[in-house]
Amino acid sequence: MPVICREEGRTLVASVSGELDHHQAKAVMEELERRIDQALPRQLTLDLEKLTFTDSSGIAVLLRTWRRMGQIQGSMRVIHAPAQAKRVFRAAGLERMIRFE
Amino acid sequence: MKKENYVSMEFPSCSANEGFARAAAACFAAQLDPTLEEINDIKTAVSEAVTNAIVHAYPDTIGKVVMRLILREERVVEIVVKDWGVGMEDVERAREPMFTTGNEERAGMGFTIMESFMDVLKVRSTPGKGTTVTMRRKIARRGGR
Ligand SMILES: Nc1ncnc2c1ncn2[C@@H]1O[C@H](COP(=O)(O)OP(=O)(O)O)[C@@H](O)[C@H]1O
Ligand SMILES: [Mg+2]
After folding, report:
1. Digit-coded pLDDT (tens) for B17-31
2. How large is the average pLDDT for residues A90-95?
3. Which residues contact B28 (CB under 8 A, 6 or more apart)?
4. Is residue A88 within 8 Å of B107, Cβ to Cβ?
5. A55: nearest CA in chain B?
6. Would you say B46 and B68 are in contact if contact means Cβ atoms under 8 Å apart?
7. How far apart are CA A81 and CA A49, in angstroms?
8. What pLDDT does residue B136 have?
């Protein structure tokens, strides 16, 4: 699954596209962690506009990424989450921890 | 509840089949002309059930998974996902939010999602014998039909 990243100053913008299920989660997580460790950004913006499906595997990816950003004293926000993904993340109460815009 | 239509499929517990299983369930449910949200809810619940059969039922081997899609009377879609894997000692506990025996790649939210996205969730499991997950969702009748 493609994770496309770009850096805007100290912000890392990562766009995840396709279906983020268990089959893809590991590759996405590894790529996100690799890019975070490389860029050490102040903020991570996760752009989910092109995400066509996710399930609880996506919840685990978001939580782990959020913790990783916390470890380097950075913040994280999620933008353009489609309705299906929002419904999944809401079921896990993710909006209490992660900023959705 | 009378069976009006059904499809049965068997596949090995490879993660590549997760996408196939939920697409098949979405196609089957399409005969009731559901809304996009109803389709997405079914896809998400199926993804959770099938992923569990793939991840947890057969931790170190490839095993058999059967998915049955049933159309029951009064526009109820029933999905049964069955495996012959390790099973669960305590189903009640497994269904609790955030309970997982998996690694950091699991959130422990699969059953919670199945429960909140479907009308009915039944889980039968025997340690060493396997697990059967049955879910039902009624598809609302839309205006003019
Ligand atoms: N088909 C299955 N066979 C054996 N154990 C299962 C099965 N489905 C679920 N479980 C057990 O129930 C737990 C909770 O499942 P779930 O809510 O989907 O969370 P997760 O998959 O993230 O662990 C799993 O960690 C596993 O221990
Ligand atoms: Mg699960």
Report:
1. 999 999 999 999 999
2. 95
3. B7, B69, B71, B77
4. no
5. B44
6. no
7. 6
8. 98
Residue B143's pLDDT band, with cuts at 50, 70 and 90, is confident
Report CA B129 to chain centroid distance, whole Å. Answer: 18
B10 closest CA partner among B82, B77, B61: B82
Please give, rounded to a whole number of angstroms, the shortest distance from the CA of B2 to a CA of chain A: 31
Q: Give the number of domains in chain B.
A: 1
**Pairs of residues, one from chain A and one from chain B, whose beta carbons lie less than 8 Å apart:** 72
Q: What average pLDDT score do residues A9-29 get?
A: 96
Q: Are strands B76-83 and B64-72 parallel, antiparallel or unpaired?
A: antiparallel
Q: Give the CATH number for residue B13.
A: 3.30.565.10
> Which residues 48-67 of A have a C-beta within 8 angstroms of B?
53, 55-57, 59-60, 63-64
Q: Which domain holds residue B39?
A: 3-138
Distance CA(B4)–CA(A74), nearest Å, equals 54
Amino acid found at A78:
V
What percent of chain B shows pLDDT beyond 70? Answer: 99
The CATH T-level fold of domain A3-100 is Transcription Regulator spoIIAA (3.30.750)
Q: Which amino acid is at B69?
A: L
Is 60 exceeded by the pLDDT of residue B145? Answer: no
